[in-house]
Write a structure and sequence with these properties.
Layout: H1 2-30
């Protein structure tokens, strides 16, 4: 019984870590992270 709980916790943690890694990789590929020039009222 305790072994099954440990396996379940390990699998759950692995799934969460994998999903987090996928989100971080997708964010780094899809989001622009460059310099931005902001012009307000032609000044």
């Amino acid at each position: 019984m305790a072994f099954q709980i440990l396996i379940a916790v390990a699998v759950f943690t692995g799934v969460i870590m994998t999903l987090s890694a996928v989100i971080l990789v997708a964010r780094s590929k899809l989001v622009e992270t460059g310099s931005v020039t902001l012009l307000v009222n032609d000044d």
